[in-house]
């Protein structure tokens, strides 16, 4: 046999090696492995890619055979038990749907149910050893706290495929001269191995390999690179090669899932006749603009048919798809990294870091369009993947699929920081301004700083959502930073960083001077998300002619049109469009009033407290958007009227109780209560749009403000009104919305 100069084993060969006591002369243990009480005869290990030493697919050896655990009914409590079996103090999370790759062999446990206090997994309830109806696409994994149990002997723990693992990938510019714009889109491929960063030999390097690398770095695609230039440059530089023989199919979400060959420490000749692998990635227009590159010239594309909702960070969220002009969700059955990666690349990101199930990014409403999506990873769109159309009985919104995508590194988090707060999630906002050689930290004027600006600041910091945007920061010490360097900040709420928001530029103007009148934020990884049940509005709408003598309280609360002030009280009547509104909290945090109980206002007329000045706006609009009638409703009683089966009510208004809406609950405002109407006394017959907006002034932060508005077609003939085609503002396609607003009241005269 011809001798070789490098170790030419694949990762599968490495796996077999690590499991074989005679491979590479590894000594066999002289004594039996030490076992924990209750775990006699069992061994545990973490396996799979990509992962760190304290996370992975859980595998158990029983009766000499290794197997996995199904993710059905798997919980954090079970993860705690397994992490202790593996020698860690506790679990910080768990994974499903074979995030670390599918295992092989038996599936030892299914429907595992633990309380979290068990000393061994054998004390947990399950279907019994080897009794499972799962496939390896449902293998469970754990993420343990990186802290070992004192005195733990890990001789019964085997970490498979760990010693030669590609943990990270980066691109290093061949010529590092001066400050380069981020993100880096072209350079030498470097991988981080256990002993540091190394380069990759380009022998056999393919476009498939580049595609995988670009996906890991947050780019949707790759392009050809001038190899001759880099070869010439490589002759003048020294290189440290640690990897060769990379062979990817192109659908992998991580380089570690490709076939790899590692150099050994004693290999003296590395990459003879070759050079370092070079990759050039194509950023999406969003990130191309940030790096100063020209946007790629491409054919105009229609409206996107996939979007993400409810994510705390860019590139993550619940997957929603457009079908027949209406947005709907995707059922998580058979949802995996390949399908998630297709979504991520379609949206202009890289490959997927995680494929999420179980409505981890909040529950949607309305239709569920797809189920059992099976992608190869090469499809240009999720709609090109084989899938099954579902019926209402097949899936529920508790099974909505989500993704977390790889994003390019832009360094925006290095240009902002918080100071003076009690934790890293709160404080006075400081931004880095100036050019090379004159960089300085400064404060932001608090004038007009609000929730939308705070949302962008928290997103840039990588801290999720904004709980509060503060215009005064008396209780946070500013330290040595006192200069205000930015004012007039105005954001739409979708920007990735504050420098993308409108501001006064170099002309800083602040109405109130002093460091205590500067912008501050309190960030959170979770937020509420309110959504109006549009069908109920349509079903309950009707007209009532209500006598003026019954409207004194409503007039006191400004719930009537301005012409009511000149009416002949108490004679006559007002014509009211009444309807019920049911407001759901589909987010991941309770919706609470911004003001504390100490500032709630008591209204004697109705015998209740107002916790928000304005909670909803009710408007009648003409086709061109002109308002012809309006109403508003103060949130006089934010409470849990009803909840889902497994959710308990937490808020009620009786006896000066706490107000709010719990996640999974809804607040119902019946059509027969005061102010639950629009005064249309002065409205002429015609075709109109009924619009309801929740939390219109953004007083309380939510994960998504685009779904706070509901619109309906209205046809009013002076005696009767037809309300139909009610939908959430972002539930339709752009074209469907244009048709809706162009012909209000014309599409149908029936309630649908």
Automatic annotation (TrEMBL):
Domain of life, per lineage: Eukaryota
Post-translational modification, as annotated: The lysine tyrosylquinone cross-link (LTQ) is generated by condensation of the epsilon-amino group of a lysine with a topaquinone produced by oxidation of tyrosine.
Disulfide-linked positions: 70-134, 83-144, 114-124, 248-258, 331-395, 344-405, 375-385, 491-501
Reactions this protein catalyses: N(6)-acetyl-L-lysyl-[protein] + O2 + H2O = acetamide + (S)-2-amino-6-oxohexanoyl-[protein] + H2O2; L-lysyl-[protein] + O2 + H2O = (S)-2-amino-6-oxohexanoyl-[protein] + H2O2 + NH4(+)
Enzyme's top EC category: oxidoreductase
Signal peptide: 1-25
Pfam families named in the record: Lysyl_oxidase, SRCR
Cellular-component GO terms for this entry: cytoplasm; extracellular space; membrane; nucleus
Positions of the SRCR domain: 44-145, 169-282, 306-406, 416-524
Alphabetized GO MF terms: copper ion binding; protein-lysine 6-oxidase activity
Main location: cytoplasm
Region called Disordered, residue ranges: 290-311
UniProt-listed SUPFAM superfamilies: SRCR-like
Cofactor(s) listed in the protein's UniProt record: Cu cation
Protein family membership: Belongs to the lysyl oxidase family.
PANTHER family for the chain: LYSYL OXIDASE HOMOLOG 3 (PTHR45817:SF2), LYSYL OXIDASE-LIKE-RELATED (PTHR45817)
Function of the protein: Mediates the post-translational oxidative deamination of lysine residues on target proteins leading to the formation of deaminated lysine (allysine).
Stated name of the protein: Lysyl oxidase homolog
Taxonomic lineage of the native organism: Eukaryota, Metazoa, Chordata, Craniata, Vertebrata
């Amino acid at each position: 046999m011809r001798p070789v100069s490098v170790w030419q084993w694949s990762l599968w060969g490495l796996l077999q090696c690590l499991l074989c006591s005679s491979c590479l002369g590894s000594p066999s243990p002289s004594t039996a492995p030490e076992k924990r009480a209750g775990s006699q005869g069992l061994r545990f290990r973490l396996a799979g890619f990509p992962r760190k030493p304290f996370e992975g697919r859980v595998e158990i050896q029983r009766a000499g055979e290794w197997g996995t655990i199904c993710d059905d009914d798997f919980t954090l409590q079970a993860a705690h038990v397994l992490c202790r079996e593996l020698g860690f103090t506790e679990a910080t999370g768990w994974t499903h749907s074979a995030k670390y790759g599918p295992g092989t062999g038996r599936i030892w446990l299914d429907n595992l149910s633990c309380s979290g206090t068990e000393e061994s997994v054998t004390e947990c309830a399950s279907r019994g050893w080897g009794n499972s109806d799962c496939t390896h696409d449902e293998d469970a994994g754990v993420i343990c706290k990186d802290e070992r149990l004192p005195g733990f002997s890990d001789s019964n723990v085997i970490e498979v495929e760990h010693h030669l693992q590609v943990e990270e990938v980066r691109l290093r510019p061949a010529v590092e001269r001066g400050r380069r714009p981020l993100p880096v889109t072209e350079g030498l491929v470097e991988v981080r191995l256990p002993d540091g960063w190394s380069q990759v030999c380009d022998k056999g390097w393919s476009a498939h390999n580049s595609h995988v690398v670009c996906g890991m770095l947050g780019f949707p695609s790759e392009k050809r690179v001038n190899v001759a230039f880099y070869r010439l440059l490589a002759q003048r530089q020294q290189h440290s090669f640690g990897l060769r023989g990379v062979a990817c199919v192109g659908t992998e979400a991580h380089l570690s899932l490709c076939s790899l060959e590692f150099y050994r420490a004693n290999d003296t000749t590395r990459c003879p006749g070759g050079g370092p692998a070079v990759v050039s990635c194509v950023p999406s227009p969003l990130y191309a603009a940030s790096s100063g590159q020209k946007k790629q010239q491409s054919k105009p594309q229609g409206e996107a048919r996939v979007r993400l909702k409810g994510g705390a960070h860019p590139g993550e969220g619940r997957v929603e798809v457009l079908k027949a002009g209406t947005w709907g969700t995707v059922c998580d059955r058979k949802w995996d990294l390949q399908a998630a990666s297709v979504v991520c690349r379609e949206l202009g990101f890289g490959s997927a870091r995680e494929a999420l199930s179980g409505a981890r990014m909040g529950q949607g409403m309305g239709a569920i369009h797809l189920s059992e999506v099976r992608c190869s990873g090469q499809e240009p769109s999720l709609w090109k993947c084989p899938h099954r159309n579902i019926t209402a009985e097949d899936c529920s919104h508790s099974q909505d699929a989500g993704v977390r995508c790889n994003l390019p590194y832009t360094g925006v988090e290095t240009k902002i920081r918080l100071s003076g707060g009690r934790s890293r999630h709160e404080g006075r906002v400081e931004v880095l301004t100036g050019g090379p050689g004159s960089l300085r930290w400064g404060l932001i004027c608090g004038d007009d700083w609000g929730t939308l600006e705070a949302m962008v600041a928290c997103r840039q910091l990588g801290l999720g959502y904004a709980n509060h945007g503060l215009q005064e920061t008396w209780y946070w010490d500013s330290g040595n930073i006192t200069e205000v360097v930015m004012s007039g900040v105005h954001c739409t709420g979708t920007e990735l960083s504050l420098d993308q928001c409108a501001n006064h530029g170099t002309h800083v103007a602040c109405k109130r001077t002093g460091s205590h009148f500067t912008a501050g934020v309190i960030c959170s990884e979770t937020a509420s998300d309110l959504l109006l049940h549009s069908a109920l509005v349509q079903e309950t709408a009707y007209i009532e002619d209500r006598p003026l003598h019954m409207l004194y309280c409503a007039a006191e609360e400004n719930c009537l049109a301005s012409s009511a002030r000149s009416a002949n009280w108490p004679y006559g009547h007002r014509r009211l469009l009444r309807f019920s509104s049911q407001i759901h909290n589909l987010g991941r945090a309770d919706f609470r009033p911004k003001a504390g109980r100490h500032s709630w206002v008591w209204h004697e007329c109705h015998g209740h407290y107002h916790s928000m000045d304005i909670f909803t706006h009710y408007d009648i609009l003409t086709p061109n958007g002109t308002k012809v009638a309006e109403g508003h409703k103060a949130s006089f009683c934010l409470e849990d009227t009803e909840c889902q089966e497994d959710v308990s009510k937490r808020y009620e208004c009786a006896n000066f109780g706490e107000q709010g809406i719990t996640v999974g609950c809804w607040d119902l405002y019946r059509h027969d209560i005061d102010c639950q109407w629009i005064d249309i006394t002065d409205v002429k017959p015609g075709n109109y749009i009924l619009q309801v907006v929740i939390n219109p002034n953004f007083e309380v932060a939510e994960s998504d403000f685009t779904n706070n508005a509901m619109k309906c077609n209205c046809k009013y003939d002076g005696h009767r009104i037809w309300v139909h085609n009610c939908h959430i503002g972002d539930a339709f396609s752009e074209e469907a919305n244009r048709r809706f607003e162009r012909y209000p009241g014309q599409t149908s005269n029936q309630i649908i």
